[in-house]
Amino acid sequence: MSTITLTTWSLEMTSPEDLVPAAEPGPEITVRRAEVPSPEFSRFLYASVGQDIHWTDRLSLTRAEWAAHLDRPGVETWVAYDRGTPAGYIELDPQPDGVVEIMYFGLLPAFRGRRIGGHLLTLGTARAWDLAQRWPDREPTRRVWVHTCSQDGPTAMDNYQRRGFKVFRTETEEKQDTPTPGPWPGA
């Protein structure tokens, strides 16, 4: 099997004032928090968004493992909808010392290129900054960070930087070039 060079960039924002909002895509797009943790819904979002960009690390998790992750205080999933249909999501993962990682962010393939991603990233990043307001035992956010890689969508890095994120680390590695998992098992 052949190998590819994979570059991973870690980006951060250290002040809520650094957030540069994207234009709103239109009234048919809404973003809501999934307030009831649902392993099935989260797995659907993960597999659907990541089907063509090599998201595989969570595909082998059991339902109990998904539930344990989602039940952690401060973990939040915000979902973009196009007239009621899920279009993408952003998952916030609280870490110690006022740090919030944008663990996953993306759109289902059919919804890419419609200016939904910038809007969703804007709202999700703002929710990372005010996470402590919804989770009283959490200290205020002082840093929001995310990583993206050369296998993510072609506009991912540009979207993060346009929202105000700055690169703080770049890593390169050789890895096996594997096919994407596809939208359905065995597809």
UniProtKB/TrEMBL annotation:
Q: Where is the N-acetyltransferase domain?
A: 29-179
Q: Which InterPro entries does the UniProt record give?
A: Acyl_CoA_acyltransferase, GNAT_dom
The family database entries (Gene3D superfamilies) matched by this protein are listed as: 3.40.630.30
The name this protein goes by in its record: GNAT family N-acetyltransferase
Organism, by scientific name, is: Streptomyces racemochromogenes
Ranked from the top, the taxonomy reads: Bacteria, Bacillati, Actinomycetota, Actinomycetes, Kitasatosporales
